[in-house]
Predict the structure.
Amino acid sequence: MRYLPKSPSERQQMLAAIGVRSMEELFTSIPAAHRLNRPLNLLGPLSEMEIIDYFRARAAENSCGYTSFLGAGVYNHLRSVVTDALIQRGEFLTSYTPYQPEISQGTLQAIFEFQTLMCQLTGQEVANASMWDGSTALTEAVLMAQRLTGRHQAIVARSLHPEYRDVLATYARNVSLEIDEVAYTPTGQIDAAALRTAVNDATAAVVVQSPNFFGVLEQVPELAEIAHAKQALLVVAITEAVSLGIVRPPAEADIVAMEGQSFGLAPSYGGPFVGVIATREKFVRQMPGRLTGQTTDHAGRRGFVLTLATREQHIRREKATSNICTNQALCALAAAIHLCLLGKEGLKELAQQNLAKARFAAAELAKIPGVQRAFSGPSFNEFVVELPRSVKMVNADLLQDKIIGPLPLSGFYPELSKRGLVCVTETTPRAEIERLAASLRQILDRPV
Amino acid sequence: MTDRIKKASRHTSQSEGLIFEKSAPGKRGIELPRLDVPAVDARQALSAAHVRETVNGFPEVSEIEVIRHFTRLSTWNYAIDLGMYPLGSCTMKYNPRVNEFVARLDGIATEHPFQPIQLSQGCLKIMQALQNCLLEITGMDAVTLEPSSGAQGELTGLLLIRAYLESQGNPRQKVLIPDSAHGTNPATAVIAGYQVENIRSDARGQIDVERLRQTITEDVAALMVTNPSTLGVFEQHIAEIAEILHANGSLLYMDGANMNALAGIARPGDFGVDVMHINLHKTFSTPHGGGGPGAGPVMVKKILEPFLPVPVLAGKSDGTLTLDFSRPKSVGRMRAFCGNFGVLVRALAYALAYGPGIRQATEDAVLNANYIRKHLEDVYELPYKSPSMHEVVFSDARQKKYGVNTIDIAKRLIDYGFHPYTTAFPLIVPGAMMIEPTESEPKEECDLFIDAMRAIAEEAATNPEVVKTAPHSTRVGRLDEVSAARKPILRWQPKASGEAAD
């Protein structure tokens, strides 16, 4: 077997050195009754070529050749070959969590840079070394607010990503956290008046997403004021991180929970991505996850270490701030490299292109009789359209033209039948936007 | 003693500051295609209140500078690709490159979790193939691939236990955890709403079966056991432990962090385990990447299947696959979408490379650990003499008298060209030195490691200072972790202050 570096005679030499006659003898500590006495029934062994063929065959059963207008927490953005080349260096790819700082300075400095970039983007003071994804980052942010306030209610915008709400509900069930929901208005934004009524002295956190699931920007300063008036914390989720190139960051939030997939990570059927928690410095000791800090060695040389580990499970066990151990370090590295490549101007231009393309697409679609924007609030690169008939039916016809159409919202929001979420990024050529509009016009022209 | 350092030699490494310190206005490393629609004024489109002008402090560098910066940083890391990484419990084995290649294929890396199910059959077949493989290796009945890591797998497993017990009328209050367990076990139990009761290991480092029989109470929901334990020792009485729990209406959870000692040899489903997780970034070789991503699939017995997180992979009558969301008894969703799919792809590629031959990998891992044990047990203290499986735990008891501890020895290993073993874990061994070579090490590398460890044992007796002040060959020496925690500096700040967040 090509991954195993021993010859038969070396195995024999090693067994002899140990003082056993056979491999079998090395396993006698497992009671005989529990030992498997047959070969596993598994496909393989396959050579490298066969493995590639197997996965190429699976890839061919997916969506190659289709143009997609899906976003909703997973975005198609440009990815540089530079990022991929760098993260595949063995020294990054095949290294462990940097618990031994003297021989992990590469990973540690890169994480320190990642933390800095996340602070700059979100307008927060500290950011951690990564969480599993946006949904678990959001959930951990709310649990953090619960610890910080000693209160046990979270008020969540209905316009928060439905799967993020589901994850929060799963975690909340066993930690005495009550979840209440606040509706959205015709702008697509959270109903601020209803929120003001709902927030009370038991509220640990107000939880919103901006841009929200409908692509609409929330009025973060006003929401912060509402939360803070009752000493509750404002938690802001961000699923489309590229928006921060042009959209004002949620600096008034107490905790920001972000999905960083947009920064150079492939959609990859939903993961691996990179979750981020960023917050105020005074809350750092209640943060979950790993943190890298700057320090010096005995000679005064700058170096980096994992720090404040007394929050973490391997030290604090049942009193830890979270059970997270393995995070998404390599994805955080990819995001950091991608952002360094983009730089200040590139990020802004990228965000501007997304805004312009989405505006163009919204205008093109609005020209089709019976199609209109569902919400009036300001949006970045996603928007909700209302169609004269079922989005699912329309999508089935769009597939004939090799177009994956708007995400039907009725599955997540029964009240939003005939509405679909459209995402357009810098990777969507104008011609494809026009093809979607033409195809949709034709479909809607046909009798049902 | 330095003439005994065979694996490593000094070489020049590049100095490099922070990326922010190289920045100069007007530089960039990516150019975008020309905008093919009319530009819009963000202030008009979004209103001025929503618009930011710039990201203060953001770097501005060219492509070659980014390449050099991160390449230089990379050379400051140790890695499996450079040599043995004997971190006990972490299972640092070879990460096959073909796994990286297939995870990046068009049609795999490019797929969106919300695309139509009929255009996702390739993804779902990959998930199905991995599920079948995990079930065959563990001997369990059903599986979810959703958890993002081992810790989230543990949480999923405990939520399944809670949901099952609730359906029986009482979720119970306590989870029993041996004192040798990973820290994630107790931290997870708390999030699952359980009180943790630590149970002491017996003199052989095993769960004390008689004590368990006498002290188990009706409020025990489950026992979380790591098998082989963190001492690298198989729990001899695992079936009896399962019987005691089952007779009490409790369930047996197995932390599968050490499944690489069992694959092809023994199946947890055959010795009484009700629910377990497996770390794909350990046993199934998906790269650690400096701390993640991983994945922590959870395997269960039939009784727990109705409670699995949504969505569940399901077959349709027409032979195609789908994702089933209508599962009324489900514990809910553990994370968005379908888990760390890209990690699942790599794990399947690894499993396909071996097929039933994965047994050979397990044998070689156990062979390496025992070979190292045999050659070091005369110079380092072996507190538990039970037969080792894939890892061996020594202690620094003999070196302590020279003032040398496990961390010193670990740091000195760096000078000899190795990554340290795991220090100070498991907690039941004071001054633990936990060594896991994995199957990826040739005999030659094991021999070099043995030589290095023996040389350090001699140094500890004859020249303890050189060990206590190690490492001597790295870019930076031991770092001041106390100051780092007391006055945390967690981000770079521009020298000229006053740049408020815009």
